[in-house]
């Protein structure tokens, strides 16, 4: 048996075969988009108050529900 062939095959037979970088870059972009959406809450908040003439408490309710659902679903999705 040729040992060079064995070592070359062993080196190429990793679990990701180079796709780990694709997954990492994809996760980076998804997180960047989600953080951008989370940071744009202030703009949406002001728009809700001005457009619909509602109180600050009423304008905050949808954003509070979104954050609560995201944080509470983490435990459930982890299993």
TrEMBL record:
Query: Keywords, A to Z?
Result: Membrane, Transmembrane, Transmembrane helix
The portions of this protein that span the membrane are: 20-48
What's the protein here called?
Answer: Monocarboxylate transporter
**Protein species of origin:** Nephila pilipes
